[in-house]
Amino acid sequence: MPDWNEDIRRRLATLTLEPTREMEIVEELAQHLDDRYHELRAGGATQADASRAALAELSEGGWLARELRRVERQVAAEPVVPGAGRRHWIGDLWRDLRYGLRTLLRQPVFTGVAALALALGIGGNTAIFSLVNAILLRQLPFRNPEQLVWVSVRRPEPGQFPFTLPDFIDYRDQNRGLDGIAAFANWSANLTDRGDPERLQGLRISANAFLMLGVEAVVGRALLPADDTPGQERVVVLSDGLWKRRFGADPQMVGKPLTLNGASYTVVGVLPPQFFFPIKEAELAIPLAPDADPWRDVRTSVHFLRGLARLKPGVTREQAEADLTAVAQRLRRQYPVANARKVGVTLGPLYEEVVGGFRLALWVLLGAVGVVLLITCVNLANLALARAVARHREMAIRTALGATRWRLVQQLATESLLLAGLGGAAGLLLASYGIDLLLALSPANLPRAAEVGVDFRVLGFTLALSLLAGLIFGLAPAWQATRVSLNDELKESGRGGAGGARQSRARGLLVVSEIALSLVLLVGAGLLVKSFLRLQGVHPGFDAENVLVVRLSLPKGRYPDRAAAAAFHDRLRPRLESLPGVETVGVVSALPLSGTMASIPFTIEGRATAQDEAPRADYRMVSAGYFRALRIPLLAGRAFNERDTSQAPSVALISQKLAHRYWPDGNPVGAHLRIDDNDQGPRPVEIVGVVGDVQHLSLDVEPAPHIYLPLHQAHEDAVVWLTGNQYWLLRTAVDPLTLSAAARREIQAVDRDVPASSIRTMEQYLAASVAPRRFNLWLLTVFAGAALVLAGTGLFGVISCGVAQRTREIGIRVALGAQAGDVLRLVIGQGMSMTLGGIALGLLAAFGLTRLMKSLLFGVSATDPLTFLVTAGLLTFVALLACWIPARRALNVDPMVALREE
Amino acid sequence: MDRELKKGSAELMILALLEARPRHGYEIGKLIEARSGGALRFHVASLYPLLYRLAGRGWIEGRWVERPGQRRRRYYKLTSRGRKVLAAQRSTWESFVAAIHRVTRPERA
């Protein structure tokens, strides 16, 4: 029977209607010719005569097209008016949208799977972007934030260093490049007069800070410069979080008194929710009041202040830094002893200080989730190509009817965009849950977490991403699908092909790119896994298992001196030791991995050291039981004991690192140090023992040299710090958290005004110290896993389709004597050639890209060959698996059936 | 048959054929041919534009129907507007034919 389409197409060459309408017309006319042909044949006409007579029903010379166009125009009855062109375009779009929607609804499984995959991809991207947006892209919530800088002291050794109070005052008064400079320091307080006592983390901040930052209170007022004047009423401002958490957002709190560390403060205001303190956990702030701090107002006092400043308009950071460095050098000449090592001042953008540590990780994660979406798009493009093959005939007919290629692409792209829009909408919904999940999993020190959410920029991102995804997975297949020639199409269909070699090549290329992208992600995740394993393998220098940590802060008024602090210790220690399940109790002024640290200069008696080259060591005041509680090994000499009291000779323990550095060949036990831990000048201590090194700062930082002093021999000048920072450690024979309530009870029994608000296990501190790495690792591994699955399914789809297309070929090969092995080799060979191509490309890309994440790695090179090898192997294995199933199916091809299908 | 006469009566014939039940294009063409005893025949190129015009005016309505084992076909049925138009046209036509008849009948001497 003739195919009438060719003849109808010739006569309707000039007809350009909406594609569906055109198709319907052609189908109906072809149907009519068919009926006529069969009738003539039934009447005894030859094929040629019947065909000729049927065709005679179609007029020549374009009459039919003209007539049909006229009818359609009458039906539309649209007046020709200016702007009709635009209406035509809008009309096309509207028709395409409706047609696209109908097409998608006709294939609910494809639509559902594709929309879900897109929703996951777009949702993941939106969730991660919402973090990037809030943390990296949104300006800091201060007036002209680009002018704000972070101020720190520069020393010969690398790092940022804090100020002493006199230094801050000098910089404040003598600089010429800053519009204002503010200083702040940690400050914690026991809140005792409202319900249960609670330890609150806060800060002392120079009261000009809020004016300088341009921050106003939401209730009451912020601190004002006048609050720093001595003799003023004690005032406090609350964070939004504390105000809501502890005081139920009561606006009447302003003007009310709070008892903090036994002293009465008046609440003057509540800061806005998006305001964040430079110290992450701070919930309240009191004025610094420099003149009211006489014991710290000496140049040799502790460096406890951090600085914030605003540049004067027109002054660059470099100019202001040079000006402050000139002040620093003047002070160095003026105070050669105290300021010997303060060689200058460093100004860094405040933005960098706040978010700098998270920038790379967040961009890497956004890149990774972007790659997952890209792989999803590639998979969908593959799927769309397979569908396009099925629709080739439709495209061919439309082209034959005169539809331009651009018009067909437009219509197919509309379909893709519609699908991407569905995926985007669902993705946005998923992202709202994803954000909560991300925040729950994120490390506690994630900055600006309270600001993370969906705003207009996130919405715009999702919209743009959906459009981009739609174009990526829709445009190429649409372009490919519309590269049709009716003759080719008929020829290819005649051979039973499902789309021809061109589509197979295109799909193969997509799979290669998909495998390459997956490998990049897998290598990235592999490197993070290896880093994390290395980090987990680092011994912290102590045994964190079964240790309960209770942080206490003694009210300064009740515990003004060493004797009072020692008495508290001696009363509480036996009570805690007598609790069932408790083996040992120890106390330390700064817990390892808690973020608290302190260092002091020291000299070794009998060794000459230049004044400005005095070595420094981290130091901690500890009770006799501390080393037992954390099982820090004693390597030489003796540990502290109950006889190391204030009346006994001053003794110290040093860490192995310090011992190796200064006594590389000898025994330091019995040597004497002069430690500079007080305002009266260095004092002598005898080294009585050496203990193992402890990872105090974090697991990925080399342990610093340490000096340990007995709690009861702490210098009076350090007692203020010691009473404010006491970590009690209970080594237990049972689950440590089961002792929380009992420990709290015993503390209350000794002093009901001492709150035990922070009770955690040492393992929790350990886990928190690696939380940022775990967060990155977890997310990147999930993304890489998704990429692996997507790449595997993509390959599986293409190979399966290839097997279906080659059924006849395989049938002939089997009929000609091909063995199972030959067929397997044929199918698996096709898949593995794509896989190996993808792996080669992926390795090249990974080699370049993983260098970017160098600073996220620990103990492993960005081009670690083993990781590259293992991930490539894993991908190859998954690819083999993806090829195996279609290959097995190919084995079952019955040659007779395959040939009969022809 | 005269082309102008055919054109003037084509709409009425199609509407009348669809009055009883829905029919597809080929069937309509065949019925016209059969009932006219072969005097009237519509080719594809004139029948379908006419059908589309009637559908565009809302007098008839086309719908694709699929039957098991058969290709889908487009069936046309009369709409309620079509019914009114048919009634009007039929009446006009009958009056016209009667008038023509009266005019053209042979005069008696």
Overview of this protein structure:
The complex is a heterodimer of chains A (902) and B (109). Helix content of chain A is 52%, strand content 14%. Chain A is an alpha+beta fold and 902 residues long. The longest helix of chain A is centred in the middle third of the chain and has 41 residues, at 350-390. Chain A is elongated and about 130 Å long. The model of chain A is unreliable at 77-87 and 489-499 (pLDDT under 50). By secondary structure, chain B is of the alpha+beta class. A 3-stranded antiparallel β-sheet of chain B has the order 1-3-2. Chain B starts with a helix and ends in a 5-residue tail after the last helix. The model of chain B has no long low-confidence stretch (mean pLDDT 85). Chain A binds chain B through residues 24-25, 27-29, 31-33, 35-36, 56-59, 63-64, 67-68, 70-72, 74-75, and chain B through 24-26, 29, 43-49, 52-53, 55-57, 64, 71-74.
Task: Give a brief outline of the structure.
Chain A has 902 residues and is of the alpha+beta class.
Q: Helix and strand layout, with pairings?
A:
The complex is a heterodimer of chains A (902) and B (109).
Chain A: H1 5-11, H2 19-42, H3 47-56, H4 63-76, H5 84-106, H6 108-137, E1 148-154, H7 165-174, E2 178-191, E3 198-205, H8 209-213, E4 219-220, E5 235-238, H9 240-247, E6 257-260, E7 263-270, E8 284-287, E9 306-311, H10 317-334, E10 344-349, H11 350-390, H12 392-400, H13 405-441, H14 456-481, H15 486-494, H16 500-537, E11 547-552, H17 562-577, E12 582-588, E13 599-604, E14 616-622, H18 626-630, E15 634-637, E16 651-655, H19 656-662, E17 672-675, E18 683-691, E19 706-710, H20 716-724, E20 726-732, H21 740-750, E21 758-761, H22 762-769, H23 771-805, H24 807-815, H25 820-849, H26 865-891, H27 895-900
Parallel strand pairs in A: 3-8, 5-7, 14-19, 16-18
Antiparallel strand pairs in A: 1-9, 1-10, 2-3, 2-9, 4-7, 5-8, 6-7, 11-20, 11-21, 12-20, 13-14, 13-17, 15-18, 16-19, 17-18
Helix pairs in contact in A: 2-3, 5-13, 6-11, 6-13, 6-14, 7-10, 11-14, 11-16, 11-23, 13-14, 16-23, 16-25, 16-26, 17-21, 23-25, 23-26, 25-26
Chain B: H1 3-20, E1 23-24, H2 25-35, H3 44-57, E2 60-65, E3 73-78, H4 80-104
Antiparallel strand pairs in B: 1-3, 2-3
